[in-house]
Amino acid sequence: MKQHLSFLLVLLAVLSQATPNWASSILIPMDDQQSNHLKAYGIAYKILKDDMEVDWLLNYRGGSFMVKQTQAAETECRVRGVSFEVISDAKAASIKQQLADPDLNMNVVTLQKAAKIIVYSPIKVSPAEFENTDAVLLVLTYAEIPYEVIYDEEVLKGDLPKYDWLHLHHEDFTGQYGRNIHRQSLADIKVQEDIARKYGYSKVSQMKLAVAKGIKEFCAGGGYLFAMCSAAETLDIALAAEGVDIVSSAYDGDGVDPDAQEKLDFTKTLAFGNFTLEADNGYRGFSTFSDINSAGARGYDQPSGFFELFNFSAKWDVIPSMLTQNHENIIKEFFGQTTAFRKGAVKPSSLVMGEGKTSDRYIYGEVGRGQWTFYGGHDPEGTRGGGFRNPTDLKLHPHSAGYRLILNNVLFPSARKKKRKT
Questions:
Q1: Are 300 and 384 in contact (CB under 8 A)?
Q2: Residue 83, C-beta contacts closer than 8 angstroms, at least 6 positions apart
Q3: Contact at 8 Å (CB) between 39 and 398?
Q4: Which CATH superfamily is domain 117-414 in?
Q5: Full DSSP string of 294-313
Q6: Which of 189, 192, 260, 303 is most buried (most C-beta within 10 Å)?
Q7: What is the chain's pLDDT, residue by residue, as a tens digit (422 residues)?
């Protein structure tokens, strides 16, 4: 009996040496079989943070991830409630061979290093209660992806090159404090005025222009910029209006340049051109910034339709393919101070990745050595109540296709860079 047992142990040892990798990969599906799409991105980021690579399987089961099998990775998936499959080396090789087929619109992109993430937000310096509905802050926290918060002072000090990925949300870079009812509190405004004085600017609008230029320089130097809602619109307005007073006396004590519209320089912007500034309706009165915003004076309307993601070549247009990975290509519309982008205002150099019936919702571009993505609207699952926006509980939306687009951008800088062909 002992000899028989010894023989079995030796046989098992030999077999384990002969086939050491029979189950050496973990597949994290991102189709309808995934129990938590949003937290799956957090698993991918955690693995990158642990100095391991992640294969992003473009257009395979909703843009699945494949990683080396480890007990730690399995445990993370179980703890976070993320679906996974342990597969053999042969199965992993078969999947990659399938994705390499030139007749299939699929590809493998290897993610190599976790990006160092920062979020530009007034919560760094003031209460800014409105920021508790910032979709990126919400989803980074829910997906358990670490980030740091910065604001104007860090940009002015030149700290941006320390990071890889920068997010801008519901911000006003024109120095008009959001031009929306209760958008910013008096405390928020005072903090910006104090920062402007500290750095020698006589107006907040001048300080915000310097910040906008710093953000553009960060992107041109090789950084990744992701902006949503009014930040996308007002960043370009500020850049186009350099040296031109577009801020009324209600905000800074002197009037608007009467020739401001004619003096705008669209060559300085990232995404938009051929836009017209909107007149101001008074301090703390509702007003849009320009006709870049396709929603115009409707402002925070309730969602009423859908927008569609474009289908790119995963082998030739790798970047937009990464940024549009999803288990759904029809996305529920959502609104914000800047809801979507008027088609006539989007520069031809900007790549449209998602559009509604009358507007562009999701666009991408390159400047210098860096890339940017602008996403219209405020919160992909946002609702309103009592006249104000309510914070979204992402536990109720673990499969949000709208939020997946945000997280695609978070992983994007971890990929080997491949320029698009079209």
A1: yes
A2: 28, 29, 33, 34, 35, 36, 40, 77
A3: yes
A4: Class I glutamine amidotransferase (GATase) domain (3.40.50.880)
A5: TTGGG-SPPP--EEEE----
A6: 192
A7: 445 545 444 444 444 443 344 569 999 999 999 999 999 999 999 999 999 999 999 999 999 999 999 999 999 999 999 999 999 999 999 999 999 999 999 999 999 999 999 999 988 988 766 566 799 999 999 999 999 999 999 999 999 999 999 999 989 999 998 876 456 778 888 899 999 999 999 999 999 999 999 999 999 999 999 999 999 999 999 999 999 999 988 888 888 999 999 999 999 999 999 999 998 766 556 678 999 998 754 444 444 589 999 999 999 999 999 999 999 999 999 988 899 999 999 999 999 999 998 899 999 999 999 999 999 999 999 865 444 567 799 999 999 999 999 999 999 999 965 444 44
Please indicate, yes or no, whether the overall pTM of this predicted structure exceeds 0.70: yes
* Cα 182 from Cα 330, distance rounded (Å): 33
Residue ranges of domains in the chain? 2-111, 117-414
Residue 325 near residue 58, CB atoms below 8 Å: yes
Distance between CA atoms of residues 325 and 107, nearest Å: 12
The burial class, CB within 10 Å (0-12 / 13-18 / 19+), for 6 is exposed
Q: Which long-range contacts link 5-10 to residues 24+ away (Cβ below 8 Å)?
A: none
Q: Are both 2-111 and 117-414 of the same fold?
A: no
Q: What CATH class is the domain 2-111?
A: alpha beta
Nearest to 316 by CA among 62, 57, 107: 107
**Which residues have CB under 8 Å from 119's CB, separation 6+?**
134, 136, 137, 140, 147, 148, 149, 150, 166, 167, 169
Phi then psi for 337, rounded to 5 degrees?
Answer: -65, -40
Whole-number Å distance between alpha carbons of 300 and 309: 23
Angle (CA) 421-323-210 rounded to 5° is 95
